[in-house]
Design brief:
42% of the residues lie in helices and 13% in strands. The protein has 305 residues and is of the alpha+beta class. The chain is elongated and about 70 Å long.
Amino acid sequence: MLLATPLAPASRSHRPEMIDLPSLPTDPKYVVITPEMADLWLTHCNPSSNRVLSDTFYERYAKAMASGAWKTTHQGIAFDKKGMLLDGQHRLMGIKISGVSIEMLVIPNCNAETFDVLDAGNRRQAAQLLKVPHRVIVAAAARIIGQMYKMWDPVTLFDGFYDTRASTSDILKTVAAWPELVSMAPIASAAYRAAGVNQPTHLVVLAQAARTEHAERIEDWASGLISGANMDQKDPRLVLRNRFFRERVLLGSSAGRRTSYNLIAKSWNSWAQGKLVGTLKALEGEGIIPVVGTEKFRPQERLTQ
Protein backbone atom coordinates (compact mmCIF):
# COMPACT_ATOMS: atom_id res chain seq x y z
CA MET A 1 0.00 0.00 0.00
CA LEU A 2 1.20 3.50 -0.77
CA LEU A 3 0.90 6.30 1.72
CA ALA A 4 0.73 10.02 0.96
CA THR A 5 3.57 11.60 2.91
CA PRO A 6 4.31 15.33 3.34
CA LEU A 7 7.53 16.91 2.20
CA ALA A 8 10.48 16.33 4.57
CA PRO A 9 13.09 19.10 4.73
CA ALA A 10 16.13 16.81 4.70
CA SER A 11 15.57 15.27 1.28
CA ARG A 12 18.39 15.12 -1.27
CA SER A 13 16.45 17.05 -3.89
CA HIS A 14 13.33 19.16 -4.33
CA ARG A 15 10.11 17.18 -4.37
CA PRO A 16 6.43 18.11 -4.59
CA GLU A 17 4.38 18.86 -1.47
CA MET A 18 2.82 15.39 -1.48
CA ILE A 19 4.41 12.22 -2.78
CA ASP A 20 3.22 8.62 -2.66
CA LEU A 21 5.81 6.68 -0.68
CA PRO A 22 5.76 3.03 0.38
CA SER A 23 4.19 2.82 3.84
CA LEU A 24 6.41 1.83 6.73
CA PRO A 25 5.38 -0.82 9.26
CA THR A 26 4.58 0.38 12.78
CA ASP A 27 7.09 -2.09 14.25
CA PRO A 28 10.16 -3.92 12.89
CA LYS A 29 8.93 -6.26 10.18
CA TYR A 30 10.24 -8.25 7.24
CA VAL A 31 8.93 -6.66 4.05
CA VAL A 32 9.33 -7.58 0.39
CA ILE A 33 10.97 -4.49 -1.11
CA THR A 34 10.52 -3.98 -4.83
CA PRO A 35 12.95 -2.01 -7.02
CA GLU A 36 10.27 0.70 -7.31
CA MET A 37 9.97 0.98 -3.51
CA ALA A 38 13.75 1.16 -3.16
CA ASP A 39 13.92 3.93 -5.77
CA LEU A 40 11.25 6.01 -4.01
CA TRP A 41 12.94 5.71 -0.62
CA LEU A 42 16.34 6.58 -2.07
CA THR A 43 14.99 9.52 -4.02
CA HIS A 44 12.78 11.10 -1.37
CA CYS A 45 13.88 9.79 2.04
CA ASN A 46 17.67 9.67 1.86
CA PRO A 47 19.08 12.75 3.66
CA SER A 48 22.16 14.52 2.38
CA SER A 49 23.85 13.80 5.74
CA ASN A 50 24.14 10.12 4.81
CA ARG A 51 27.53 8.88 3.69
CA VAL A 52 28.55 8.95 0.05
CA LEU A 53 27.34 5.85 -1.78
CA SER A 54 30.05 3.33 -2.64
CA ASP A 55 29.46 1.71 -6.01
CA THR A 56 31.73 -1.17 -4.94
CA PHE A 57 29.28 -2.17 -2.21
CA TYR A 58 25.94 -1.64 -3.91
CA GLU A 59 27.11 -3.32 -7.12
CA ARG A 60 28.25 -6.32 -5.08
CA TYR A 61 24.89 -6.42 -3.33
CA ALA A 62 23.05 -6.10 -6.66
CA LYS A 63 25.04 -8.95 -8.16
CA ALA A 64 24.18 -11.24 -5.24
CA MET A 65 20.51 -10.25 -5.42
CA ALA A 66 20.25 -10.77 -9.17
CA SER A 67 21.93 -14.19 -9.00
CA GLY A 68 19.77 -15.40 -6.12
CA ALA A 69 22.74 -15.58 -3.75
CA TRP A 70 21.44 -12.85 -1.42
CA LYS A 71 20.41 -14.16 2.00
CA THR A 72 17.82 -12.52 4.23
CA THR A 73 19.36 -11.73 7.63
CA HIS A 74 18.78 -9.44 10.61
CA GLN A 75 20.41 -6.59 8.67
CA GLY A 76 17.97 -4.42 6.80
CA ILE A 77 16.98 -0.77 6.53
CA ALA A 78 16.15 1.71 9.27
CA PHE A 79 14.14 4.94 9.28
CA ASP A 80 13.92 7.70 11.87
CA LYS A 81 10.72 8.99 13.42
CA LYS A 82 10.21 11.37 10.48
CA GLY A 83 10.47 8.58 7.92
CA MET A 84 13.97 9.53 6.77
CA LEU A 85 16.46 6.77 5.96
CA LEU A 86 19.10 6.17 8.64
CA ASP A 87 20.65 2.92 7.46
CA GLY A 88 20.50 0.65 4.42
CA GLN A 89 20.98 2.92 1.41
CA HIS A 90 23.48 0.51 -0.18
CA ARG A 91 21.05 -2.40 0.17
CA LEU A 92 18.27 -0.30 -1.34
CA MET A 93 20.51 0.72 -4.23
CA GLY A 94 21.35 -2.95 -4.75
CA ILE A 95 17.64 -3.77 -5.01
CA LYS A 96 17.05 -0.86 -7.38
CA ILE A 97 19.75 -1.72 -9.90
CA SER A 98 19.30 -5.51 -9.65
CA GLY A 99 15.64 -5.22 -10.62
CA VAL A 100 14.83 -7.96 -8.09
CA SER A 101 12.40 -7.78 -5.17
CA ILE A 102 14.08 -8.74 -1.87
CA GLU A 103 12.63 -9.55 1.54
CA MET A 104 14.38 -7.39 4.12
CA LEU A 105 13.89 -6.26 7.71
CA VAL A 106 12.43 -2.73 7.87
CA ILE A 107 12.84 -0.92 11.20
CA PRO A 108 10.83 2.29 11.69
CA ASN A 109 10.98 5.04 14.35
CA CYS A 110 14.68 4.74 15.17
CA ASN A 111 16.53 7.36 17.18
CA ALA A 112 18.54 9.47 14.72
CA GLU A 113 21.27 9.97 17.33
CA THR A 114 22.30 6.33 16.92
CA PHE A 115 23.39 7.06 13.36
CA ASP A 116 27.07 7.60 14.19
CA VAL A 117 27.46 4.15 15.71
CA LEU A 118 25.50 2.10 13.17
CA ASP A 119 27.46 -0.67 11.49
CA ALA A 120 25.86 -2.52 8.61
CA GLY A 121 28.63 -4.63 7.11
CA ASN A 122 30.44 -1.65 5.57
CA ARG A 123 31.77 0.30 8.55
CA ARG A 124 30.41 3.84 8.56
CA GLN A 125 33.47 6.09 8.59
CA ALA A 126 33.72 9.85 8.93
CA ALA A 127 35.36 10.10 5.51
CA GLN A 128 32.20 8.67 3.96
CA LEU A 129 30.06 11.32 5.63
CA LEU A 130 32.19 14.34 4.77
CA LYS A 131 30.87 16.06 1.65
CA VAL A 132 34.16 17.81 0.87
CA PRO A 133 37.01 17.28 -1.63
CA HIS A 134 39.91 15.15 -0.35
CA ARG A 135 37.64 13.83 2.40
CA VAL A 136 39.84 10.82 3.24
CA ILE A 137 42.91 12.88 4.13
CA VAL A 138 40.74 15.51 5.84
CA ALA A 139 39.29 12.83 8.13
CA ALA A 140 42.75 11.37 8.81
CA ALA A 141 44.11 14.82 9.64
CA ALA A 142 41.17 15.41 11.99
CA ARG A 143 42.24 12.38 14.05
CA ILE A 144 45.58 14.10 14.63
CA ILE A 145 44.61 17.72 15.15
CA GLY A 146 41.54 16.76 17.19
CA GLN A 147 43.56 15.08 19.92
CA MET A 148 46.22 17.82 19.80
CA TYR A 149 43.64 20.47 20.54
CA LYS A 150 41.57 18.42 22.98
CA MET A 151 38.50 18.17 20.78
CA TRP A 152 37.45 15.01 22.61
CA ASP A 153 38.42 12.95 25.65
CA PRO A 154 39.64 10.35 26.36
CA VAL A 155 41.91 9.61 23.42
CA THR A 156 43.43 6.32 22.26
CA LEU A 157 46.75 7.24 20.75
CA PHE A 158 48.85 5.34 18.23
CA ASP A 159 52.54 6.10 18.77
CA GLY A 160 51.45 8.92 21.09
CA PHE A 161 50.28 10.89 18.10
CA TYR A 162 46.88 10.24 16.54
CA ASP A 163 43.65 8.78 17.83
CA THR A 164 42.78 5.39 16.37
CA ARG A 165 39.32 5.23 17.96
CA ALA A 166 37.94 8.72 17.59
CA SER A 167 34.22 8.54 16.95
CA THR A 168 32.63 9.68 13.74
CA SER A 169 30.91 12.54 15.52
CA ASP A 170 34.22 13.67 17.06
CA ILE A 171 35.90 13.77 13.67
CA LEU A 172 33.01 15.64 12.06
CA LYS A 173 33.03 18.12 14.94
CA THR A 174 36.78 18.65 14.47
CA VAL A 175 36.45 19.29 10.74
CA ALA A 176 33.73 21.85 11.47
CA ALA A 177 35.98 23.56 14.03
CA TRP A 178 38.98 23.50 11.68
CA PRO A 179 37.76 24.57 8.22
CA GLU A 180 41.44 25.03 7.32
CA LEU A 181 41.61 21.24 6.98
CA VAL A 182 39.34 21.54 3.96
CA SER A 183 40.85 24.69 2.46
CA MET A 184 44.46 23.44 2.78
CA ALA A 185 43.77 19.88 1.58
CA PRO A 186 44.47 20.62 -2.13
CA ILE A 187 48.01 21.73 -1.22
CA ALA A 188 48.65 18.58 0.82
CA SER A 189 47.32 16.46 -2.03
CA ALA A 190 49.47 18.21 -4.65
CA ALA A 191 52.62 17.96 -2.50
CA TYR A 192 52.03 14.25 -2.09
CA ARG A 193 51.68 13.73 -5.83
CA ALA A 194 54.80 15.79 -6.53
CA ALA A 195 57.12 14.67 -3.76
CA GLY A 196 55.43 12.01 -1.63
CA VAL A 197 54.96 14.31 1.37
CA ASN A 198 52.65 12.61 3.87
CA GLN A 199 49.20 14.10 3.28
CA PRO A 200 47.46 13.98 6.70
CA THR A 201 50.48 15.24 8.67
CA HIS A 202 51.26 17.95 6.14
CA LEU A 203 47.61 19.02 6.25
CA VAL A 204 47.70 19.31 10.05
CA VAL A 205 50.77 21.56 9.86
CA LEU A 206 49.17 23.70 7.15
CA ALA A 207 45.86 24.03 9.02
CA GLN A 208 47.65 25.34 12.09
CA ALA A 209 49.94 27.60 10.05
CA ALA A 210 46.90 29.15 8.39
CA ARG A 211 45.85 30.54 11.79
CA THR A 212 49.17 32.24 12.48
CA GLU A 213 50.84 35.48 11.38
CA HIS A 214 52.86 33.40 8.89
CA ALA A 215 49.82 32.32 6.85
CA GLU A 216 50.80 34.53 3.90
CA ARG A 217 53.90 32.35 3.36
CA ILE A 218 51.83 29.21 2.65
CA GLU A 219 51.41 29.98 -1.07
CA ASP A 220 55.18 30.20 -1.71
CA TRP A 221 55.76 27.21 0.55
CA ALA A 222 53.43 25.14 -1.61
CA SER A 223 54.88 26.41 -4.88
CA GLY A 224 58.44 25.42 -3.99
CA LEU A 225 57.53 22.13 -2.35
CA ILE A 226 55.49 21.05 -5.36
CA SER A 227 57.83 22.24 -8.13
CA GLY A 228 61.22 21.69 -6.49
CA ALA A 229 62.65 24.33 -8.84
CA ASN A 230 64.91 27.36 -8.37
CA MET A 231 65.70 26.83 -4.69
CA ASP A 232 68.87 27.04 -2.64
CA GLN A 233 70.21 23.67 -1.51
CA LYS A 234 69.46 24.68 2.09
CA ASP A 235 65.94 25.88 1.36
CA PRO A 236 63.72 24.10 3.94
CA ARG A 237 61.25 23.16 1.21
CA LEU A 238 63.90 21.45 -0.92
CA VAL A 239 65.46 19.70 2.08
CA LEU A 240 62.04 18.36 3.09
CA ARG A 241 61.25 17.35 -0.47
CA ASN A 242 64.49 15.39 -0.77
CA ARG A 243 63.95 13.71 2.59
CA PHE A 244 60.56 12.39 1.52
CA PHE A 245 61.97 11.22 -1.80
CA ARG A 246 64.59 9.19 0.07
CA GLU A 247 62.25 7.73 2.71
CA ARG A 248 58.90 7.84 0.97
CA VAL A 249 57.74 4.40 2.07
CA LEU A 250 58.38 4.90 5.80
CA LEU A 251 57.35 8.55 6.03
CA GLY A 252 54.25 7.93 3.96
CA SER A 253 52.98 5.14 6.21
CA SER A 254 50.83 5.23 9.33
CA ALA A 255 53.84 4.11 11.37
CA GLY A 256 55.81 7.08 10.11
CA ARG A 257 53.22 9.78 10.79
CA ARG A 258 54.77 11.12 13.98
CA THR A 259 58.20 11.41 12.36
CA SER A 260 56.80 12.90 9.15
CA TYR A 261 54.80 15.45 11.14
CA ASN A 262 57.87 16.61 13.05
CA LEU A 263 59.97 16.87 9.90
CA ILE A 264 57.28 18.90 8.13
CA ALA A 265 56.78 21.13 11.18
CA LYS A 266 60.53 21.78 11.48
CA SER A 267 60.78 22.58 7.78
CA TRP A 268 57.73 24.88 7.87
CA ASN A 269 58.97 26.66 10.97
CA SER A 270 62.31 27.41 9.29
CA TRP A 271 60.60 28.56 6.11
CA ALA A 272 58.11 30.75 7.97
CA GLN A 273 60.95 32.48 9.84
CA GLY A 274 63.17 32.89 6.79
CA LYS A 275 65.83 30.42 7.93
CA LEU A 276 67.89 27.97 5.88
CA VAL A 277 68.52 24.39 7.06
CA GLY A 278 71.30 21.92 6.36
CA THR A 279 69.47 18.74 7.34
CA LEU A 280 66.18 17.66 8.87
CA LYS A 281 66.52 15.18 11.70
CA ALA A 282 64.01 13.23 13.75
CA LEU A 283 65.52 13.00 17.21
CA GLU A 284 65.07 10.12 19.61
CA GLY A 285 62.48 10.91 22.29
CA GLU A 286 61.55 14.36 21.01
CA GLY A 287 58.01 15.51 21.56
CA ILE A 288 55.54 16.80 19.00
CA ILE A 289 57.06 19.88 17.37
CA PRO A 290 54.83 22.97 17.73
CA VAL A 291 54.05 24.96 14.61
CA VAL A 292 55.55 28.43 14.98
CA GLY A 293 52.93 31.01 15.88
CA THR A 294 50.50 28.55 17.47
CA GLU A 295 51.70 29.34 21.00
CA LYS A 296 48.89 31.90 21.10
CA PHE A 297 46.17 29.25 20.92
CA ARG A 298 47.50 25.71 21.31
CA PRO A 299 47.07 23.60 24.48
CA GLN A 300 50.57 23.73 25.99
CA GLU A 301 50.58 20.39 27.78
CA ARG A 302 50.03 18.32 24.63
CA LEU A 303 52.34 20.12 22.22
CA THR A 304 55.81 20.37 23.69
CA GLN A 305 59.32 20.76 22.48
